[in-house]
Structure formats: structure tokens, C-alpha cells
Design a protein that fits this description.
Blueprint: E1 5-6, E2 10-11, E3 17-22, E4 25-30, H1 35-41, E5 48-49, E6 56-57, E7 70-73, E8 76-80, E9 91-93, E10 95-96
Length: 106
Amino acid sequence: MRINEHPIFGVIESGEKVTIYLDSEPVEAHEGDTITSALWAAGKKVSRYTPERCEPRGLFCAIGYCSDCLMVVDDMPNTRTCITPVRDGMRVEIQQGNGNWEKVYE
């Protein structure tokens, strides 16, 4: 299922195919997709697990307001993936808790 219209970006035109990597697994995306819309189209709906209860979270507001879509993108935790456009070769990881900030400050 592809998301063709976004509350902020409007109608999303399908661009050229690109590849992003979810936990090292290749996922097909299109230029113009957000990370979340590309993952949803591939059937991947969990973006993070809560810090205390390890409960799965995923797309909720789709406008960058809540924190349910936070993921680690190219080693940067807490990236709002519902409003972050994909780019070829992007590395995305399901975030555990508050994310690992050690890589950011190396």
C-alpha cells in the first residue's frame, strides 16, 4: 500500500526508485516518499519500541507532531520519519527506547 497524499507534502508523485536499508535489509522506495510511507508500502509498520515497556510504535499523526515515528536514520536517533524524505542508500533502524546517542558524539 503506497501513501499517495500527505498532510504536509500534499500529493506525492512517484519518482525514481531508490533503495533504503531498514536494519540492513533493502527496502524499495521512490523519490518523494517519506521514510514512513516507503516502509508502510513495504509492509514495515514498527518504527520504535518504547523505553520502559518495549511496546511497538509506528505511524500516528503523519505530520511530525507526535513521537511515534521516531527512528535512527544514518546513526541519528529520534528522527521524525513521517516527514523525512528518503534518499538512495539511507540507513534506517528501528529505535530501541530513547536511541543510542553515543554514535552521534563519536
